[in-house]
Here is the input.
Amino acid sequence: MSLNHPEQFHSKVWLESPIRTAEGELQLAGALSDVPGLDPNSMRVLGSYSFIYMVKAKGYYADAHGMRRNLRDGDLVVIFPEIAHAYGPRVIQKWDQIYCVFNGPQFDFLHERGLLDPHHPVWHLEPIDYWRRRFEEVIGSEDWHTEVGAKRVMGRFLHLIYDMSAADAEGSARFARERWLEESQRLLANRGDHGWPSPEEVARGVGLNYDNFRKQFSLKLGVSPGQFQKRKKIDRACAAIYQGSHGFKELADELAFCDIFHFSKTFKQVMGMSPSTFRKKAHK
Here is the structure.
């Protein structure tokens, strides 16, 4: 089965019988299309560990620990032997998944050590075609009916778990690294409860040293935090002037300019014209 094109995804059983080693057992594995969901009001306990990789899905995950998550393409659901759970599509649609059911002392060890963590039951892995291929290659390229073959498959499967855990952690760290930029833009562009925050205050708010914050912000957006905030203030001024809702002095006060002359000078720097000229053009 080619894994390069999503339209070629088909239901297929990858294991004809369990793979047993001293480290653990791979019980079931394969690919499924258009599977029905499990009712969150009557959760099931599987009795084994399981990975469910969402190749194409929009759905939900719920468990007895109170976890509720929306699912999307690239999510990996980790099922634990003792935890009742449910998952499935939210609406009638295409639903493609890869599944592996497994058990044994090596997986219990990963559970005890926190690599398999019931409080973090949904991982995210992209690119999807790459991880689809990795799943199939764990089982599909070896004669696992022999003792040596079974050991090789189990070794590859354990390696896959570590790789998936690392990829999920890396993706989470990358997301956290980018969140500071989104949050800092929000803070700079809006008046807070105590007035407009300075770039230094915003840096502290997102947990960064100001010099590093200014450097990284400028690198990402091409303008300094102060320039970004100045532009956002003038954007607000333009909207207010266009709507006729504020006078220039009122705008200068609301946008934290020291006086109307400072406001007018900044407005002209940004817009290339004075507030008065802009108002005349807007109200023609």
User: Anything to note?
Assistant: The beta strands are 12-13, 19-20, 25-33, 49-56, 59-63, 68-71, 75-79, 85-89, 96-103, 122-124.
